[in-house]
Amino acid sequence: MKVIKKINNNVAVGLDGNEREVIIFGKGVGFPHMPYELTDLSRITKTFYDIDRRYYAVLQDIPEDVFLLVSRLVETAKTRISGNLNPNLTFVLADHVNFAADRKKKGIDVGLPYSYELEYQYPELTRIARWFVKNINERMHVSLDKSEVTSITFHFLNAMEGEKAEKKSAKGDRTGRVISVVTKIVEDYFQVSVDRNSFHYFRFKNHIKFFVQRKEKGADFSQENEELYENLRTAYPEVAECVARIDGYLEEEFGERCPKEELLYLMIHVKQLYSKESSS
């Protein structure tokens, strides 16, 4: 196998015998000078095919043990779910779990309320998500609460629909339209051109996609972090003003204002996106 790009010392991008790009895990596989020929394939412990390149950045942000734990849990979950799952699911969930665990350790609770409606509609997926969260809590020594079951269920649902959805044009569908308008609001407010291939934008876009899904399924954030919302709004007034404009548009689209938990999440994502664009 030809190894063509280092992600870190133990993770790299390779080309297999059919010239297919693959992410490989293995001790020291990213250490030699690139490119090189990896002749001892027994050094490879894990491979991932058909991953969107924008997710490669996840592997630089997430501890390897967290990523591999999520990967093992996803592999087990796949045996319980009928149908194909989007190959990016492991990367999406690893990013979500790492972000949620980090917030929890810092005492920041931001999440969806538990959705009994979603449990009623998708009882098996909810059981899998509950098992998933239980294992994360036990093995990472965190205490993600019940609301994370709803978030993980949404991720599984999205992964089941993802391969079909990614083949559709965004022009005619509501989610694509909302993403486009919200992105334009950010660009106009900060006078920047957002890099639509960046990982921060990928996170931002996925958050808006889940926002639309939650609205259409009647799920919404709770109202338990008003103090944190006010603190962030005071610390970053420009970001808060930009999010207020986004909230105005979303009210026109969905007929109601966003709860402060949603505005808090939007501020976090917009701040990351703007900080990246303004420094590039």
Distance between the termini: 34 Å
Query: How would you sum up the major sheet?
Result: 5 strands, antiparallel
Morphology? globular
What topology, given as strand order, has the largest sheet? 4-1-2-3-5
Structural class: alpha+beta
CATH T-level fold name of the largest domain: PTS-regulatory domain, PRD
Give the domain tally. 3
Q: Give start-end ranges of low-pLDDT stretches.
A: 163-172
So what's the CATH class of the largest domain? Mainly Alpha
- Look at the structure and name the CATH superfamily of the largest domain: PRD domain
**Average pLDDT rating:** 86
- Give the total of beta strands: 5
| Structure annotation, total helices | 11
The fraction of residues assigned to DSSP E strands is 5-15%
Radius of gyration: 20 Å
Percent of residues in helices comes to 55-70%
Helix and strand sequence = EEEEEHHHHHHHHHHH
The second-level CATH architecture of the largest domain is: Orthogonal Bundle
3D structure, described in words:
This is PRD domain-containing protein. Keywords: Repeat, Transcription, Transcription regulation. InterPro entries: BglG_antiterminators (IPR050661), CAT_RNA-bd_dom (IPR004341), CAT_RNA-bd_dom_sf (IPR036650), PRD (IPR011608), PRD_sf (IPR036634). With about 280 residues, this protein is an alpha+beta fold. It has three domains: about 1-50, Transcription Regulation, Sacy, Chain A (Roll); about 50-165, PRD domain (PTS-regulatory domain, PRD, Orthogonal Bundle), CATH 1.10.1790.10; about 170-280, PTS-regulatory domain, PRD (Orthogonal Bundle), CATH 1.10.1790.10. Helices cover about 60% and strands about 10% of the residues. It contains eleven helices and five strands; from the N terminus they run βββββααααααααααα. Strands 4-1-2-3-5 form a five-stranded antiparallel beta sheet, with no helix packed on it. Helix 5 (about 125-140) crosses helix 6, helix 7 (about 175-190) packs across helix 8 (about 200-215) and helix 8 (about 200-215) runs antiparallel to helix 11 (about 260-280). The two termini are about 35 Å apart. The relative contact order is 0.09. The model is unreliable at about 165-170 (pLDDT under 50).
